[in-house]
Amino acid sequence: MDSNLKEQLVRAVFRFRRMNMELPPELEIRMGEFFLMKQISGDGPCHGPDSRLADVHHHLHMTRPAVSQMLNALEKKELIHREIDRNDRRKISVTLTEKGRSTLDQAMSYMDGTMIKTISRFGEDNTRQLIALLTLLADVLEKVSHENGDALSANNKGENGLD
Length: 163
Known about the structure:
Oligomer: single chain
CATH architecture of the largest domain: Orthogonal Bundle
CATH topology of the largest domain: Arc Repressor Mutant, subunit A
Distance between the termini: 34 Å
Order of helices and strands: HHHHEEHH
CATH superfamily of the largest domain: Winged helix-like DNA-binding domain superfamily/Winged helix DNA-binding domain
Shape: globular
């Protein structure tokens, strides 16, 4: 395999990670908080009366502690309101406040404008192809990571005499 190709792939992936698309500072929310607020508002694919925060964290590919930390930050900024369900104290209802809805609307408007410009310049066909390829790449990387994790676990068991 061409070692240059491996290096180029790693550089391209890390270039996107470093790019870290951000929202305007006056909105006072980060990108992860934006996606979480979308889910809370019902604008995301993981919403409805039966949705749970566990579903949200899984869909957003974030850990539960990360989602919890974001919820704490959003509540501190008065963008969300949390309330314990009176019928089942294990359930917590999370809703956007009026300020949260306004912030989300502004963030969505900004993101829509950014995506329209990006797709316009990159081209719709290229965008569709990129989405398909990035989805495939993510699937492959997840499988390889899982396989490597399984191999690492098996190696550790053997080294510790647990096999």
